[in-house]
Amino acid sequence: MQTIAPVVFEVARTILAAESSPDGVYTTDVIDAPLLEATPPYLGIISGAQLDPAATLVFRILVAAELDRDVHRVLRRLSAEPSAVGTPVDGVIAVLEGLGEDPVAALRALWPSAPLVGRGLVTVIDPALPPMSQQVTVPTRIVDYLMTGEPPAPPAPFVIEEPVPASSLCPLQVSRGPGATTDAAPHLRRLLAGLDGRTPLWLVGAPGSGRRTLLAAVAAELGKRLICVAQASLAGMTPRAIVATLWRELLLRDGIVCVHDAEAVVEAGSPEESMRSAAIDQRFVGLVDTLVAAGLPVVFSSTQAPPVHAFDHPLQVVQLEPVRREDAVALWRRGLPEVPEVGDLATRFRLPPGRIVRAIAAARTQASAQELRTLRADDVIRAISLGVAQQVSVLGSRVFDTQTWDDIVLPADTKESVREMVARVRHRHRVLDDWGFRGRLSKGLGVTALFHGPPGTGKTMVASLIARELGQELYQVDLSRMVSKWIGETEKNLAKVFDAAEGANVMLLFDEADSLFGKRTEVSSSNDRHANAEVNFLLQRVERFEGVCILTTNFERSIDTAFKRRLAFRIEFPMPDERERTELWRRMMPSAAKVTPDVDYARLAASYELAGGNIRNAVLRAAYLAADENQPITMAILQRAVKLEYRDAGKLSSTGTIS
Fold first, then answer.
1. Is 91 within the bounds of a domain?
2. Which parts of 220-268 are beta strand (E)?
3. SS3 of 186, please?
4. Co-location of 297 and 346 in the same domain
5. Residues 25 and 108 in one domain
6. What would you measure as the largest C-alpha separation in the chain, in angstroms?
7. 595 bridge partner residues
8. Residue 593 and residue 550 share a domain
9. Which one, 95, 171, 229, 610, has least CB within 10 Å?
10. Pairing mode, if any, of strands 135-137 and 123-124?
11. Separation between Cα atoms, residue 337 and residue 332, nearest integer Å
12. pLDDT greater than 60 at residue 349
């Protein structure tokens, strides 16, 4: 491939000849010299950066200085303030003046906002110095590209998303309004082709939905590369550095920038303020405004839609729809041709395409390690379960319970509500997909419930029984590990848990949820604002969660009112009445236990107002007391166990009813 060397060496000869000219007149051959030797990379940069003639000439001289030490030496000799580092601006201006060029235009070409500097083709070593005292360089990445014609690998944290053929992608849909969708690939192709830098494109989709994979494939069809960078990686850079770096990468490979993980961090206001009126983090607004002002063709990618009201310029927001069941089945079948139950897998696990692909790969890796010849559906299920466990284990743990529905006694109203909740989870696929209700609902597609009541009334136990009946795994979130004093960390932890559980046939249990889902308060300090931001995030994330989420609390009134309105079920677990306590005493005693005839469960129920959990503890205590005394469980031992239970609970009486 041709290089730009002939052009820059001609510039070098011109400058060297000028240095030895006795009358100080500089030849203008360099201006009139045709650029027949210029390579496509050189011409592409000049065109892409929209350099005017003055800026183009400055750029050529600076590249020559990078390539030829004699050129650099001459420019330093022409400078009033020569430096060992960089090329002196006043030396470049002196050459251009001798060539009859306008020195003001040349100096203007090196202004911070001008394309040469603003688009990363030239770096100013010390911007604080006066313009004529500055030293500048052409980044090595630009010089290497001009000399080799091959763009170098992007620097960290930038990554090139390698495209896959669009024909191999899982078909995806994007929303075009209530109940209306269209194919994602052609829609995005049209938007990317018209991306002009004035209106950013914002692609929203669930984790693992294939946003970057889809964008890279569509960009490749347009002859462009997708240059990806995480939003957090830009946090420590100045706006000018961000713009210059992104422009430089775009000019090197004619690409499109994708800023991913562009989640909107909201600032909470008054308790009545909803997510729709909350303000986005102003640092994030500043980043978007900076990129738009620079005319960068940018695509933002996130799991939540941006609050468009926070921006002064329009956004093109595109929402990826969940993968259709028939497309998910096809993707499962393509990856697991030997597994006949792919339809069942697609029904049981409503995973996005990326997670389906990863689950298949993980299952095959595990099968290979175990030297299994044939992959079965159970192997895939185990791989999905292991993946969820690895993601959630840092913030929670799986609940294993051996109890059954026969071990619990509930009021009729509570039983009815629990049965309705189980039915909703069991028949979601039929109602939402087969009967078409998914298209009528924009949110609340999951099943969320608040179990409230005094301690020991069976809230956590019922949650585990529901999970077992539905064939789902139950993960209890450890709120002590979830909540962080660092701003934004609690939201990140919550996102990890919800993202891992989404579509994976997993139930989430937030025990004693009032510590996290409490009422928002009037903002009187930064602590109030950040606490309210956490509740705001939860409101939105729970609404978007399509799985099963159960919250338990002993204090129903402490849960945020707006949050309670968004729950599908609010089920009360009251203290058991005397009849229910009698049944609980009877059921808690195993049939194999040795019990004396004097044990009167009805009398125990009438005498002691205990919750089911306390009754269970008292029975177990009595069993150990009896075993230690090598005798059967007697009424007296049971009463002694109740006294110990009252003492541990901080009760003031151990002989009867406490009012």
1. yes
2. 225-230, 255-260, 266-267
3. helix
4. no
5. yes
6. 126
7. 633
8. no
9. 171
10. antiparallel
11. 8
12. yes
Number of domains in the chain: 5
What does the chain come to in residues?
A: 659
Cα separation, 50 vs 53, in Å, equals 10
Contact 201, 149 (CB under 8 A): no
Nearest of 297, 304, 298, 331 to residue 319 by alpha carbon: 304
How far apart CA 285 and CA 281 sit, in angstroms, is: 7
Q: Kindly state whether residues 567 and 587 are assigned to the same domain.
A: no
Element housing 423 (H / E): helix 412-426
493 plus 356 within the same structural domain: no
**For residue 517, with 0-12 CB atoms within 10 Å meaning exposed, 13-18 middle and 19 or more buried, which class applies?**
buried
For residue 71, being part of any structural domain is answered with yes
Which tokens belong to 90? 């006043």
Q: What pLDDT is stored for residue 487 in this prediction?
A: 64
Nearest Cα residue to 78 out of 26, 39, 41, 5: 26
Final residue of a domain: which of 547, 572, 597? 572
Helix (H) or strand (E) holding 301: strand 298-302
Mean pLDDT of the chain, nearest integer: 82
456 lies in the same domain as 520: yes
> Which CATH number belongs to the domain containing residue 178 in this structure?
3.40.50
Q: Identify the pLDDT of residue 441.
A: 79
pTM score, two decimals? Answer: 0.73
Q: Is 76 domain-assigned?
A: yes
Single out the residue in 553, 572, 591 at which a domain terminates.
572
- Alpha carbon dihedral 311, 317, 322, 324, in 10-degree steps, equals 170
CA–CA distance, 38 with 54 (Å, rounded to integer): 17
The enclosing H or E element of 279 equals strand 279-280
Residue 391 lies in a domain: no
Three-state secondary structure of 189-201: HHHHHCCCCCCCE
User: What pLDDT, on a 0 to 100 scale, did the predictor assign at position 296?
Assistant: 87
Rounded to an integer, what distance in angstroms lies between the CA atom of residue 631 and that of residue 596?
Answer: 9
Mark whether 633 and 555 lie in a shared domain.
no
Separation between Cα atoms, residue 261 and residue 144, nearest integer Å: 31
3-state secondary structure of 449: strand
Residues 311 and 430 in one domain: no
The DSSP code for 275 is: G
> Measuring CA to CA, which residue among 309, 287, 306 is closest to residue 298?
287
Nearest-10 crossing angle of helices 140-148, 40-48: 140
> Above pLDDT 90, what percent of the chain?
34
Domain residue limits at 88: 5-148
- In this prediction, residues 73-82 reach a mean pLDDT of 82
In contact, 181 and 321? CB cutoff 8 Å: yes
